[in-house]
């Protein structure tokens, strides 16, 4: 695992998304943007991008996210090489495994340090990164901008504040799994 910390519990799935909570993830958590150049003027610090297409659009406007979380897939289809975001120029690359509709210990442990590292970091997920938005919102600092893709609509920009963090932590608590292990993996709340 390049740049990551290995361990037998890395593949442990700490949370899974129950069917009754899937609807909570359909509505965007912030305004939807279709123009990355306009979005760029609204971004705070640090910028955290969840998703390949979002990262590619931000990078094309000259914004290299402080943390980018990618899985080389969009809308359940593998991205052709020509559509993958450029990950050169990141100071650290962390490779993790994460299942669909779940959050693994490895992914959660990579998020906090990825945000706090002080150098541009990319997390490359073998599996699915879609749910990473929620724990990122739970630990990102005030003033951060989290940007993720809303399939078929555009890029959702979520400015982080205490209200956003509380909402994200409540969503995590509603998921099936070990809340205490999640908090430990994220470095505590």
Automatic annotation (TrEMBL):
The UniProt keywords, alphabetically, are: Coenzyme A biosynthesis, GTP-binding, Kinase, Nucleotide-binding, Transferase
Q: Name one GO biological process term.
A: coenzyme A biosynthetic process
> A single GO molecular function, which one?
kinase activity
Task: Write down the InterPro entries for this protein, in alphabetical order.
Answer: GTP-dep_dephospho-CoA_kin
Q: EC top class, in one word?
A: transferase
Q: What is its EC number?
A: 2.7.1.237
Q: Name one Pfam family in it.
A: DUF359
Detail which positions bind GTP. 52-54, 71, 129
The record's catalysed reaction(s) read: 3'-dephospho-CoA + GTP = GDP + CoA + H(+)
Q: What pathway does this protein act in?
A: Cofactor biosynthesis; coenzyme A biosynthesis
Q: Which PANTHER family match?
A: GTP-DEPENDENT DEPHOSPHO-COA KINASE (PTHR40732:SF1), UPF0218 PROTEIN TK1697 (PTHR40732)
Spell out the family assignment given in the record's similarity comment. Belongs to the GTP-dependent DPCK family.
Q: What does this protein do?
A: Catalyzes the GTP-dependent phosphorylation of the 3'-hydroxyl group of dephosphocoenzyme A to form coenzyme A (CoA).
Name assigned to this protein: GTP-dependent dephospho-CoA kinase
């Amino acid at each position: 695992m390049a740049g990551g910390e290995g361990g037998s519990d890395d593949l442990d799935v700490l949370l899974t998304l129950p069917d009754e909570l899937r609807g909570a993830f359909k509505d965007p958590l912030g305004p939807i943007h279709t123009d990355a150049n306009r979005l760029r003027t609204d971004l705070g610090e640090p910028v955290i991008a969840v998703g390949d297409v979002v990262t590619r659009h931000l990078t094309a406007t000259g914004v290299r996210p402080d943390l980018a979380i990618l899985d080389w897939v969009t809308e359940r289809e593998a991205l052709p090489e020509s559509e993958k975001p450029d990950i050169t120029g990141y100071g650290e690359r962390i490779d993790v495994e994460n299942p669909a509709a779940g959050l693994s210990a490895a992914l959660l442990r990579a998020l906090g340090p990825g945000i706090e590292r002080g150098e541009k970091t990319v997390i490359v997920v073998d599996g699915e990164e879609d749910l990473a938005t929620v724990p990122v919102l739970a630990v990102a600092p005030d003033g951060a901008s989290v940007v993720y893709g809303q399939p078929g609509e555009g890029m959702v920009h979520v400015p982080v504040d205490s209200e956003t963090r509380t909402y994200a932590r409540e969503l995590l608590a509603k998921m099936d799994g070990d809340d205490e292990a999640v908090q430990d993996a994220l470095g505590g709340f």
